[in-house]
Every structure is written in structure tokens, then in C-alpha cells.
Amino acid sequence: MITLNKTNEANIHVLKVIGDESVRPVVNFMPINAVFMGIAYGGEVEEAAKILKGKGTVYGYDTFEGHPKELCKGDNPFEKECMDYWYKMYGMEDLKYENQRAALDKQGLTNAVLVKGLINKDSCKDLDHIDVAFLDLDILESMQIGYEAIKEKMIPGSILMLHDVVPEHHIPRLNKWYKEEILEKGWNLVEEVSKSFLVILKKGD
Prior knowledge:
31% of the residues lie in helices and 23% in strands. The protein has a single domain (4-203), classed as 3-Layer(aba) Sandwich (Rossmann fold). Helix 1 runs parallel beside helix 2. The longest helix has 11 residues, at 140-150. The chain is of the alpha/beta class.
């Protein structure tokens, strides 16, 4: 399965968090729940499920049909068009739910759960907690909805990773949202990795 974030090395940081028990919360009586929103071709979900096999579940949320450009209300074309390059390179076939599910099943990764459709505020209502969340939705409106879906499920010490919110000029609307609506509002900054367009935050008590 294809991991687009290998090109900017964000996947290295994301998977390190997934596998590092000293980083994410350790709650012995609860299995680990990791949520990925905006999984494209599914490579990061595949790798995370390998790391957490026997320890927890990875939930991958996506349309599995392509970037929902119609949700973008901003005037920055990159938010709408950022996935077009990858679709031209890799095609659309491996975006499909059926193909990703088959690839995961072939490897016995039953701890990877794929959730098809547009994200909404109730997307995570059936999860009792979330240890790690990775939001990579590119469009501000989608990121806002994704955050609403996960924020009340994140437990103290849990890790939130946001992609494309840094540096400031990359996707300005996302950077502004991150600085004004997320940073320090119950979250402690662990690391900003501008070259990977990634921030890593930890929930306070």
C-alpha cells in the first residue's frame, strides 16, 4: 500500500509515536485506539496496524473516492488541488475501500478498521477513547470537523498529530487555525517538524 507522506518523512514521526509506549499514554486496562483521518492510499494505516497488532486497533477514515474539493470554502487553490498530483501519479484504483480492505486482509491486519464516507462530528462516537490521532485532511473545513470528532475522545497524555498546518505559508488557513484554535488550548506542543508539515501535540491532564 502507498504511503504518500514518505516524500516529506512525516510517516517516520507518525509511526514512531504509534510504536513508542513512552510517548503515548499507557493505560493497561484499555486497548490502544489510533485514529487516522485522511488516509489516501492507506499506507500509514497498514504500517500502524502492523505495529499495533495484538495491542490495539487502527481506524482509517476516508471517502475512498478522492479529495472532497467541494467542502473547501477558501480561496487557496492548493487546498482543493493538492491531491491531483498524486492521482495522476498513482491513479484512483488503489484509493477504493474494497482494494484497501483486500490488501489489509491479505496480511491478516484485522486490527485495521476502514470507515468510508465524509467525516462528521459523530464519526468517533462509538470509540470510548483515543490514544493517538493523525489528521491529514488538507482542507480547513475538513480538519475542523475531524477535530470536533476526536477532541472529546482524547484522553490525558494522548497524542494529536496535525499534518499540513506548518509552516505558515504552506496552507495559511490551516496554520492560522492551528495557532489560534488548537495550540495551547489543552494541548502541549511536543514538536513542530516544518519540513514534514507536521505538528505533534500532547493532551494535558
